[in-house]
Design goal:
single chain, mainly alpha, 23 helices, 0% strand
């Protein structure tokens, strides 16, 4: 009965072409006006209903962090057992071939998520991680290791954009930021889990195989648990499956809130949602501006030097007399602490504020590290500047620049292009990540740490300016309030 009513109501809200996103101040004013224009009722839906679904989805983020760190400690043992010890090219390939697979998986993620749904996309993400990890664990040669890592990389590329989509689409608006921070926390826990599992690798022969086998357990749990999780109501609605969309809203928000959510969903007409979204439309069409904003955020996130800091942290700590194992623990704690704090602030201060001050703090941290690399300070002072700057950088990164882009972009992308636009933007992330990893040590050798850290600080300042001028605040707003606010005014 009610479904028929909101179908009639939906005809009152005709979708207009997406606006030029150049004036973000007007967009923020439009979003504020919606507070008065939409009657949300007196209370928020229970966050407890959607929490289990979000926690299952973040297993993919845990696996993402785990596989990024799983070869760091065991790499030497792997090279000895598989017969390529001393071959730096082979060692580099074992680490970096995941990035190639990740780029492939990421490029396909939008089309997979839109084609088969979010739940099945998670299952398809888990499958290559199970197969790839098993191949790496069982292999007796370099080729088998590389093929296994390539398979794992494909799953790694598919997982993060689908997780960002799913968490954004199933979360109540008032806790969407908090739930989005779970993704970063799960990634941190995965990195620390890989470090913990790898501890016995130097004492127990062949332990590196256990490190790979262990990762198949959470991947299998993800694939199995997704059977019992809700499908994204937004995806179901785009497919014309309105009754199923309402049923899933009831599972996620409760019966009373589900009716309002469906009515709100109908305010953005799906008349053009059945059209195929072409890549050219994202790069050159009416949505190109917002895709440019998303791609630039991910590019600046990587150009800030975060991965370079992770790569170089052991050397910096070693120069200060801190063992590499303890250095990794310190970096992990700083990362996790920042992520936990961001979880509490995301829906209070907002995305834009956290992103702005996060990049600003990262710039200051890089300036500290650049100062520590000069001859103006004593050796002891240089160690304090370097170590302190590195920990501050990781902490401030985890406060905003780490978790916010993956949450903010699905919020500001219109529903029609959301999955594919995320795929394009995260592909930029992987490409920049690859080149930073490839060129960092060579640039460090040619330019020296002072100039290199100064370059990273400059990128962070550029990010501060970019966020101030281009990013819109979305805290506490439903996806449809945001999308309506981004439509042009007649």
């Amino acid at each position: 009965m009610w479904v028929g009513q909101y179908r009639e109501n939906s005809s009152m809200y005709k979708r207009t072409p997406s606006r030029d996103y150049s004036n973000m101040e007007d967009v923020e004013e439009n979003i504020d006006l919606l507070d008065n224009g939409l009657d949300k009722g007196s209370s928020n839906p229970s966050w407890k209903l959607s929490l289990p679904h979000v926690l299952v989805a973040t297993i993919s983020s845990f696996l993402f962090g785990y596989h990024l760190g799983v070869v760091n400690e065991p790499l030497e043992s792997i090279s000895v057992d598989l017969g390529f010890r001393g071959n730096t090219l082979a060692e580099g390939l074992v680490v970096s071939i995941c990035l190639g697979g990740a780029l492939i998986g990421c490029l396909l993620s939008g089309w997979i998520a839109d084609g088969v749904g979010r739940r099945r996309a998670f299952q398809l993400c888990a499958l290559p991680m199970i197969i790839g990890a098993s191949m790496s664990a069982a292999t007796n040669n370099l080729f088998g290791m590389l093929v296994g890592r390539l398979f794992v990389g494909t799953g790694l590329g598919l997982g993060p954009p689908v997780a960002s989509l799913y968490v954004t689409e199933v979360s109540p608006a008032f806790v969407r930021g908090t739930y989005g921070a779970f993704i970063q926390i799960a990634t941190c826990l995965g990195l620390m889990g890989a470090l913990f599992i790898g501890i016995p690798v130097k004492e127990i022969s062949g332990w590196w195989r256990v490190c790979f086998w262990v990762s198949t357990i959470p991947a299998a749990i993800l694939a199995a648990a997704m059977v019992f999780c809700a499908e994204s109501p937004h995806w179901l609605y785009k497919q014309g499956r309105t009754a199923e969309a309402e049923a899933e809203f009831e599972r996620l928000l409760g019966v009373s809130e589900a009716k309002f959510a469906m009515l709100e969903l109908s305010k953005v007409d799906r008349g053009d949602d059945t059209d195929t979204v072409k890549l050219s439309e994202l790069l050159h069409g009416r949505h190109s501006k917002v895709v440019f904003i998303g791609s630039t955020l991910f590019a600046l996130q990587q150009l800030s030097g975060i991965n370079a800091v992770f790569y170089f942290s052991s050397t910096v700590f070693k120069s200060a007399g801190v063992p590499s194992d303890l250095a990794n623990v310190c970096i992990g704690i700083a990362n996790l602490a920042g992520s936990i704090i961001s979880m509490g602030l995301m829906d209070k201060l907002g995305r834009k504020v956290l992103l702005f001050w996060s990049f600003f703090g990262m710039a200051m941290a890089m300036i500290l590290q650049a100062t520590g690399a000069t001859s103006l300070v004593s050796n002891v002072g240089a160690q304090y500047f370097s170590v302190g700057g590195m920990l501050l950088f990781v902490f401030t990164f985890a406060l905003g620049a780490g978790p916010v882009p993956g949450l903010l972009l699905p919020e500001i992308f219109p529903g029609r292009i959301r999955a594919k636009a995320m795929a394009v933007c995260m592909s930029v992330h992987w490409v920049i990540n690859f080149f930073v990893g490839l060129l960092f040590l060579r640039l460090l050798e040619k330019l020296g740490p002072q100039l290199l850290y100064s370059m990273f600080a400059t990128f962070c300042i550029m990010a501060v300016i970019f966020v101030k001028r281009n990013v819109v605040e979305t805290k506490g707003k439903s996806l449809h309030e945001i999308e309506i606010a981004l439509l042009p005014q007649d």
